[in-house]
Records
---
Amino acid sequence: MSSYILLSLAFTFLIFPRSYPLFLVVALGHLVQTLTHLPTGSNHNLLSLFVTIGIAAAYIQVAISERRLLVSPTKHFEVFVPLGRWVLLIMYFYGTLHKINTDFLNPASSCSVAFWHRYGFPDFIDGSPFVHSLTMYGTLVLEASIIAMLLSRRFRWWGVLLGICFHGFLAYQPDGWFRAFSTISIVLHSLFLPADSLTRFANGKFGRAMLDFFAPLGRRILYGIIALMAWSAAWLYLPRPIEWTVIMAIIVLFVFAYCREPSKQAAPIGPWLRSPSVVINVLAVAFFINGMSPYVGFKTGQTLAMFSNLVTEGERSNHLFMPKVPLFDYQSRIATISETDHPILAHWKDSGFQLVEFQLLDYIERSPDSTVIYEVDGQQFMHSPEQPLAVLADLSPRWFRNFMVFTPITPTSPHPCDDL
């Protein structure tokens, strides 16, 4: 029910888009909801978590400096927005880096090829070896190119447009489950647009015509209609492909028509990536360090390694050049489940997956009434309500384990795409 309350507040914000207090309530509500849903392996929740923490941290700093609760929205935005830009750049960086491995570049196992199959193209396209190579190497080139374009004054507009189109295309999956990630990614791209884009639209011929057309309805009625349509779409777990196409067409046309500016007028990237807040800059560094986790023996989930085929657990590593530096040993012990009545663990067992023992113990600690028998390096362990595992008493606190997510492991090689 809390999700629907938050959704209602978000769409109320559409009716009153200049209500800064309502924006703060929605942002804080989203942060609380994200924290209460931990642990989760979703990368779009990771993006949401850092963005909403950044919004909250920036507000607190500005409120302290201005000594009032209702702070300047412009100042708040200036303090926060460098984090949003860093989040997008780091997402693309690791989205490229993690994929440079033998299994992603193998058509028989690559997530890019598996992802491509889901679109349902004709056989001569879907099964073409050339197209398979294009999806693998093209993905790497495309994501790396978007980073370079966003950092360039001359090509930044092209980077925004290309990134939005890329994530818009990714969302055309048959079940639509990628659209949450695409949506937040598109929003982050907007942070690289010129600040006067909306003013250009309002002063342009088409913008003035639209405002004149809808003026008789009144802004509140118009926003109300938009909010009602958006609420209906969200309630029914939309947008479907047709609605998504309309949304993407509007966004792309707006960026194409009103957001381009001469490279000499574009802001240099340096000041855009530096926040006056030390906390915001530290969050950006933390987000970068988080993405490096697989290579240092820390966690493997929520590390921006989605659809990458990356393997770093145990003694294995399929990356072409990134070394494993075992600063931590959370990935060292791999568990094979033999028997269990735990529904989630039973699913992983029946699907042929192994789990990092740290993750398995977390499941057991949260469901102590379950029975689990598993093996690690040939040694068998058993947990039951009558005979609980002694190691559970030494587990890290839950708040820490909420951020320690590990992806299930396929023991075969090449490593298939476990994200689909």
---
Amino acid sequence: MVIHVEPENAGQGLGMTEELPNPESRTPGSGKDGEPPPEPPSDQPASSEGPADAAPSKSANKSWYVVKVQSGREESIKESIERRVKIEGLEDYFGQIIIPIEKVVEMRGGKRVDRERKLYPGYLMVEVEYNDRILYLFRETSGVGDFVGGSLNHAPPPMAAHEVERMLGRQGEQIPGISHGKPKFDRGDRVKVKDGTFAGMEGEVKELLEAKGLVRVELTIFGRPVPVELEYWQVEHS
């Protein structure tokens, strides 16, 4: 009896090839043995490099400052500054400009008269990021003086928080008035403001505007003398 034994590599060299798995049977992107590759961690921090990084916001750097301007031109100077900011593309450094006013209700000749009155004639309150570009823009605008408290080599101090709150809170506030009478004080008298935005402050009478029923008092505001026009009834001898 003869027993035939097949060699282990009988299939080699006879055109027989190892059967390969069908590529279409694997899931696209799968790993070994059809298993899906591990998912990347979802909490992986994004790269801090590259141009896609957002620029830091400049709004946090804005503060309120007081700027001296030519009295009587506050509105036109405000418009000129706002226009130049847009032309020169400095919106990122600019917030807003306010001309502080209050509305006064008076009785004249038996009739009710409403009018607006500037609280700080010759001054603007500006919200900006103080830097060389903003400083140059203001200095090159006709009618603009300096930032109050600043000098050639020193930046101006921003307004205190309570000053900003008082200014914004009283902006456009309506206060009652009375018919005009004769003032009870003369030029040079020391008076105290008893009502309105400047209540409690003291100053010197600089001028009586009898035709308007106003008195011009010099008060110390932002560390420097500022002329303020008030109704007769708003002041009293100190």
